[in-house]
Specification:
- The chain has 275 residues and is mostly helical.
- The protein has two domains: 118 residues, no CATH class; 138 residues.
- The protein is 57% helix and 0% strand.
């Protein structure tokens, strides 16, 4: 009689199957060394301006925003020319409304495509994130001041989930998922971004129900990581790479870094093995 897996065993097996799935893409150029590179965050910025720029990078990482925002101007870094090299206090002195920011985007950066100005459109929402992000980051004197503040939450497992919720309220349009993305990409590896790929996989493999909140999906990723003896950043990136099929730092593999989503195949193959 086959032994049915308990939760910890299922989590550990799911992670191992995910890694195996990605390494099956050897023909496209995915090697253990290349995969390992993606499982660790890049160095943290050492300035308030650098952290503010990261906020703006995370703020466009939802749905079609990256194509409409960064894709239209050649990357978020180009905003530095109108946003005072990403110095938050200088941005607040220069701009008092999102409309004035969008005026300068159109005038100085010549974005590709039509700019819609209705309040729920992407550029107006993004310019509100620019303004509220500057307001928030102006509260911190140095990068270390900010990192110490994040660590205050991160070092207490009971308080940790409150931080993305707080950032969601401080930065317009951030949401729990984008706030988590921002924190994990700063090297706070205990956070996971419950994006569409992780949601689809975790619902497909049954650790989460179809109507799970972002917070519940994030908790499931963190639990799986702990049971697999890796950090949540590592697990997040592993499942994200299965879902997106995008090795963004290695344009020489696949089609400019894209090897194709393995999400449906992975769920179909892994689900029977995890029962």
């Amino acid at each position: 009689m086959q032994h049915s897996l308990n939760e910890a065993e299922r989590d550990k097996a799911a992670y191992a199957l995910a890694k195996h799935c990605l390494l099956q893409q050897a023909g496209a150029g995915v090697t253990p060394q290349l995969l390992e590179k993606y499982l660790h965050p890049k160095p943290r910025p050492n300035s308030v301006a650098g952290i503010y720029q990261r906020i703006l990078e995370s703020a466009q990482n939802a749905n079609m925003k990256a194509a409409v925002v960064g894709g239209a101007i050649g990357g978020v870094a180009k905003l530095g020319s109108i946003l005072c090299d990403f110095e938050p206090k200088a941005v607040l002195k220069k701009y008092s409304s999102w409309e004035s920011i969008l005026d300068d985007v159109e005038k100085s950066l010549n974005p590709i495509g039509k700019i819609r100005r209705t309040p729920r459109s992407i550029w107006p929402q993004y310019c509100q994130a620019i303004l509220s992000g500057a307001r928030f980051m102006s509260l911190f004197a140095t990068a270390d001041d900010f990192y110490n503040w994040v660590s205050f939450f991160d070092n207490d497992i009971r308080a940790r989930p409150a931080l993305p919720m707080l950032l969601d309220n401080e930065i317009k349009g951030f949401g729990f998922a984008l706030a988590s993305d921002f924190l994990k990409e700063l090297g706070f590896i205990n956070f996971a971004k419950p994006d569409v790929h992780l949601r689809d996989i975790f619902v497909g493999l049954n650790p989460c129900s179809a109507n799970a909140s972002d917070y519940e999906v994030s908790k499931a990723v963190v639990r799986l990581a702990n049971n697999a003896n890796v950090d949540p950043y590592n697990a997040d990136k592993m499942f994200w790479l299965i879902g997106s099929g995008f090795f963004y730092d290695d344009k020489q593999i696949g089609d400019k870094g894209k090897v194709g989503s393995q999400k449906a195949k992975f769920i179909a193959e892994a689900k029977p093995k995890l029962s």
